[in-house]
């Protein structure tokens, strides 16, 4: 059972990592990267590392995503001015 969950998480991690690299739209890449961070947090929780999972969820999926969205918004806003 746990091996199956680990294999499914591995597939999701590989797909989201590849998707974040392949996609051309910046906002889509940020959202896919956020999903990747979420799956990493779940993977750490499955590996019995709750402190690392909590940190990954808070920093990786939370704060980093917000900062990336703000950065993309500012880039798009600056391009619109020019």
Structural account:
It is a single chain. With 82 residues, the chain is mainly alpha-helical. It has one domain (2-81). 90% of the residues lie in helices and 0% in strands. The protein contains three helices and no strands. The chain has helices at 2-22, 26-46, 50-81. α1 (2-22) runs antiparallel to α2. The termini are far apart. The mean pLDDT is 90.
Write the layout of secondary structure elements.
Layout: H1 2-22, H2 26-46, H3 50-81
- Report the total helices: 3
The total tally of domains equals: 1
Oligomer: single chain
Main pleated-sheet profile:
none
The backbone outline, from C-alpha atoms, is elongated
Mean pLDDT value:
90
DSSP strand (E) fraction? under 5%
Annotation, overall tally of beta strands: 0
Could you give the distance between the termini?
55 Å
- Poorly predicted runs are none
- Roughly how much helix do the residues carry, as a percent range? over 70%
Structural class, judged by helices and strands? mainly alpha
The helix-strand sequence is HHH
Estimated radius of gyration: 15 Å
Structure summary:
With 82 residues, the protein is mainly α. Helices cover 90% and strands 0% of the residues.
């Amino acid at each position: 059972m746990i091996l199956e969950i680990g294999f499914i998480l591995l597939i999701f991690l590989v797909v989201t990592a590849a998707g974040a690299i392949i996609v051309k739209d910046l906002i889509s890449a940020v959202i896919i990267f956020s999903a990747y961070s979420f799956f990493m947090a779940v993977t750490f929780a499955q590996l019995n590392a709750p402190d690392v999972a909590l940190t990954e969820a808070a920093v990786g999926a939370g704060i980093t995503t917000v900062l990336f969205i703000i950065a993309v918004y500012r880039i798009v806003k600056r391009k619109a001015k020019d």
